[in-house]
Amino acid sequence: MISVTFAPSNHDKTSVFQIINPLKILLKMKFLKLVFTSFFGLCLFFLLAAVFLAISASFSSSDGIKVKNNSILHLKLEAPIVDRSIDNPLANFNPVTMESIAQIGLYQTLNSIQAAKTDDKIKGIFIEPATFIEAGMATVEELRDALIDFKESGKFIYSYAEVYSHKSYYLSSVADSVFLFPEGMVEFTGLRSQIAFIKGTLEKLDIEPQIIRHGKFKSAIEPLILEKMSAANKEQTMTYVQDLWDQMLREISQSRGISVENLQGMADNLSNREASDALENKLVDKLIYKDELIAHFKTLLDVPEDEKIASICLSKYSAKVNKKEKSDADKVAMIFAYGGIESGKGDHETIGSESVSKMIRDAREDQEVKAIVLRVNSGGGSALASDVIWREMALAKKEKPVVVSMGDVAASGGYYIACESNEILASENSITGSIGVFGVIPNMQKFYNNKLGMTFDGVKTGNYADIYDLTKPLSESERMIIQEGVVKIYKDFIGKVAEGRSMSVAQVDSIGEGRVWSGEDAKQIGLIDEFGGMKKAIKRAAELANLEDYAVAEYPKEKDPFQIIIEQLTGQEVKERFLKSSLGKHYSVFKQIQTLEKLKGVQARLPYQINVE
């Protein structure tokens, strides 16, 4: 840290102007202070009012939520879909607009769809997806599979949107009828994956990224040293993106009765530019305005024109269905691990080695817990932190069945913490593998010298006391020492995967070296056991423990709503919410930069952030 102090000059002379001018400034400052205080007070009033309303909503009993007869379950997928929503009165609260959108938890949503299947008061499901669903492909696939299961009840599923993107259409294609706004469109162009390369940027800043890696596919560092994708990286990226696309085409083909060849032709020829094109190509069933859709629902449900349709939103129905009740039955522990892996406690967006390992340990030591499911949604992170969690997984596996459920991504360090389990379940669309490690030590010497005019000098009591100093280049011996460490971690990594998956080290090495795989390919090469989502993983864990009657215990255990409010009004989340509301879609870029700043030690991390749309 550099501290710069500005001190007044001894040559300054006092004048009448210098005395009067500050008085004017003070008067202005007093006025501004009054204005600022009033503004702050008004903001605080609105914030406290929002908190009060949130608390009131939070503590309103779920027993008070009534489902009317002849109701529709309304799935309006506007908010980001996370693995598990938290009972948080301020979840997704925007301090700028003073609005809040109910958080969507995949786990709770799956439970809701399952409950609606046998709920006599629910006559069907109405999907109204946002144009761009904020969720990974595996999450969307789990939702889609749940909707397919719901259809076995004979109840209807309808979908309506002004614009369908790939994900929203993929989800909605399972509906009995897919409706589209007459002036809308179905975006059906094929998937793509794009990477930003900053080699030129670093060169302009005179920053040299010193790379130490093992594995030809460990391409996390390519944006730092190349101007385009390497052949190996392009190969692996094209493979898993093609797998995702092929899976999407097959399932849409099955649901809509359109051949895969015709679907591919629509994408190649861009033949769905207008709503009428989508209708002609049978991607949708009818072009309809919202008022016409409401009239259609009234006819379907035999509702008089002057009455409203009975419907219940997902958040309310979920609160009723997912009501926490104490149970004396045996338990399956469901542990949620989401985000980058780092040492320490972590937070709601990271996997802290201390907190997650404690959850696994608590589940292992709890005599009522007979089996454990670890839900992993992570592209990896610290190799050291991953090893801490791996150890607890190994201990748990010795005492009770452990099943891993992979989400959108369970790769690199995310696979490290998953490999020591009895079985691994994933979606065909899950991204996994990336078994490899790397380290980056930037040489900032020229940046400081040429851009800031700064030089450094010092003393040391050991030859390698400054081995990780950013103000000098690595010597050959230093680079060799770090390379040996990276190779050691890689060998340890593939050894643990080999042991956990009952494979030879050579087999793991042949599919490792940092290569990324889709869930579909991962099953063929032995990285996962079966296809399936959270619900299937829980069922499988219960089977391995020979359980018939059991309850699901969720980890981390939910905090008291008042505690959550205090933490979010006084901690880092206040800053995060303002940044998220201000930066919008660019917030993800900010988070990536923030992640880079927190990197410590050797990393087992995905090549880059994967977002398919």
Structural summary, described in words:
This protein is an alpha/beta fold and 613 residues long. The protein has 3 domains: 15-59; 63-188 and 272-320, 2-enoyl-CoA Hydratase, Chain A, domain 1 (Alpha-Beta Complex); 324-605, Alpha-Beta Complex (2-enoyl-CoA Hydratase, Chain A, domain 1). It has 22 helices and 24 strands. Strands 12, 15, 17, 18, 19, 21, 22 and 23 form an 8-stranded mixed β-sheet that branches. Strand 7, helix 4 and strand 8 (177-186) form a beta-alpha-beta unit.
Reconstruct the topology from this structure.
Elements: H1 16-59, E1 71-75, E2 81-82, E3 93-94, E4 99-100, E5 104-105, H2 106-118, E6 122-127, H3 137-150, E7 156-164, H4 166-172, E8 177-186, H5 199-204, E9 208-214, H6 222-225, H7 231-256, H8 260-269, H9 275-280, E10 286-287, H10 290-301, E11 311-313, H11 314-321, E12 330-338, E13 340-342, E14 350-352, H12 353-365, E15 369-378, E16 380-382, H13 383-399, E17 402-411, H14 413-416, E18 423-426, E19 431-433, E20 437-443, H15 445-452, H16 476-501, H17 505-511, E21 516-518, H18 519-524, E22 530-531, H19 534-544, E23 550-555, H20 561-570, H21 572-583, H22 587-598, E24 603-605
Helix pairs in contact: 2-3, 2-11, 3-4, 12-13, 16-17
List the defining traits of the structure above.
single chain; 613 residues; alpha/beta; 2-enoyl-CoA Hydratase, Chain A, domain 1; eight-stranded mixed beta sheet; six-stranded parallel beta sheet; 22 helices; disordered N terminus
CATH superfamily of the largest domain: 2-enoyl-CoA Hydratase, Chain A, domain 1
> CATH fold name of the largest domain, please?
2-enoyl-CoA Hydratase, Chain A, domain 1
Characterize the largest beta sheet: strand count, sense, and whether it forms a barrel. Answer: 8 strands, mixed
Number of strands: 24
Give the oligomer, counting copies of the same chain as homo and different chains as hetero: single chain
Helix fraction, binned, reads: 40-55%
Taking pLDDT < 50 over at least 5 consecutive residues as the criterion, the unreliable ranges are 1-28
How many discrete structural domains? 3
User: What share of residues are in beta strands?
Assistant: 15-25%
Q: What structural class do helix, strand and pairing data support?
A: alpha/beta
**In the CATH hierarchy, what is the class of the largest domain?**
Alpha Beta
Mean pLDDT: 83
Number of helices: 22
